[in-house]
Design brief:
Elements: H1 3-18, E1 30-43, E2 53-60, E3 66-76, E4 83-87, E5 93-98, H2 99-102, E6 107-108, E7 112-113, E8 116-122, E9 130-140, E10 147-148, E11 156-158, H3 166-172, E12 175-182, E13 185-193, E14 198-201, H4 209-212, E15 217-220, E16 223-225, E17 228-230, E18 233-244, E19 249-254, H5 259-262, E20 279-282, E21 290-292, E22 298-303, E23 311-314, E24 318-319, E25 326-328, E26 334-340, E27 352-356, H6 357-363
Antiparallel strand pairs: 1-9, 1-13, 2-8, 3-6, 3-7, 3-9, 4-5, 4-8, 10-24, 11-21, 12-13, 12-15, 13-14, 14-19, 15-18, 16-17, 18-19, 20-21, 20-25, 22-23, 23-27, 25-26, 26-27
Length: 370
């Protein structure tokens, strides 16, 4: 378990001792950062002199662990090719955009690790008629985290601990951290591939096209390894294929078919057993990939979700940011889509919930590969 996660848990111990009002967690993505309005315009004057780099900008947010910027008001009437590069503080290229990319309109950059993001525009000739501005910057800023820890001490483990257990470790490759911006916040959830390009998460994470296209990215491979922390690989959300608020599910398409490298999970509509061993692979609090396995089991076969009997109750530890994680059964196939933490009172005290995957398979049947 990471140091920052242990710090969160220490705070929870204090809360438990002092006391807190009864809580029922609402379904919502985790805010792991905020966005800030800026105004950094780019424009080329006809009298400008050609240079290798026509324009440079730098954005710094001390103590931030990642940054993103939003390209807005894009207009391109130029007749030459150009490149807009996004670089980290060490001037390592993270992503480069060209004339075709800018024709899409406004978009968010990828996540850049650290407290600094650099931008450079390069062109062999002056791209007269190109203009845009950076109007928002998103950066990580720690907020209170929703916790649904059924066990004390919590049973979350780094996925690297299972590198020699292929039936556990192999499925974890298909699980990713989802990052997007909305309502002045940088938000995060989890999700997983069900084909080489189709990605399943919660509707309360991706609830409209604008949250997906030119905004959300899925980060695969963000986890501890034998050689340290792997930053992972980012893939753009390019289409919202379908959603259902009742089942709290969203199906999106990712660019470049990440499943060819990371694989995908198999869904099953078989009958789940009471007390069945389960596994919940997640990005708790937006942190590197972890797994709930110990004391993780199915506790209620037909649980109340948005409507009666749509969910499975489970005893797997989760923390805010786990929304959209797959609940795997004893056969390591997906039996549920995690979406609700427990309430502090009533029937669902100390019991988390996932939407029954059989219901989701029926609802999204036209999108599932045969």
């Amino acid at each position: 378990m990471s140091k920052s996660l242990r710090s969160i848990l220490a705070v929870l111990v204090i809360i438990a001792v002092v006391g807190t009002p009864s809580i029922i967690w609402a379904e919502q993505p985790l805010a792991e950062g905020t966005t800030e309005k800026v105004n950094e315009p780019f424009a080329i004057s006809p009298r400008g002199a050609p240079e290798p780099f026509l324009w440079k900008a730098i954005f710094v947010k001390p103590t931030a662990t990642f940054l993103r910027v939003h390209f807005a008001d894009i207009k391109d009437h130029s007749s030459v090719e150009f490149e807009v590069a996004v670089l980290d503080r060490n001037m390592r290229r993270v992503r480069a955009y060209n004339k075709y990319d800018f024709a899409r309109g406004a978009f968010w950059s990828p996540v850049v690790k650290g407290d600094t993001i650099n931008l450079e525009v390069k062109s062999e000739g002056l791209p007269i008629g190109l203009s845009f501005r950076i109007d928002e910057i998103a950066f990580q800023e720690k907020h209170a985290v929703k916790y649904s820890l059924v066990h004390d001490p919590p049973e979350l483990e780094e996925i690297i601990k299972y590198k020699d257990v292929p039936q556990v470790f192999m499925p974890s490759g298909a699980v990713a951290k989802l990052v997007f911006s909305a309502n002045g916040k940088s938000l995060t959830c989890s999700g997983f591939l069900i084909s080489d390009e189709k990605f399943l998460t919660n509707h309360h994470c991706i609830d409209r096209r604008e949250t997906c296209v030119d905004n959300a990215i899925a980060i695969f491979g963000y986890q501890l390894t034998d050689s340290g922390l792997a930053e992972g690989e980012q893939f753009d959300c390019v289409e919202l294929l379908d959603f259902d608020a009742t089942l709290d599910v969203a199906l999106v398409k990712l660019r470049s078919k990440p499943g060819k490298k990371y694989g995908w999970l198999e869904l099953t509509n078989r009958t789940v057993e009471q007390g069945e061993q389960a596994y919940l692979i997640q990005h708790p609090a937006g942190e590197p990939k972890q797994i709930a396995r110990k004391q993780c089991s199915v506790s209620t076969l037909n649980a109340e979700g948005t409507y009666p009997d749509t969910d499975i109750g489970h005893q797997c530890d989760t923390i805010g940011g786990a929304s959209g994680s797959p609940l795997l059964g004893k056969d390591f196939k997906v039996v549920g889509l995690h979406h609700r933490g427990f309430s502090s009172v009533g029937r669902w005290k100390k019991e988390n919930r996932a939407v029954q995957i059989g219901r989701i398979m029926h609802r999204l049947s036209q999108h599932l590969d045969r």
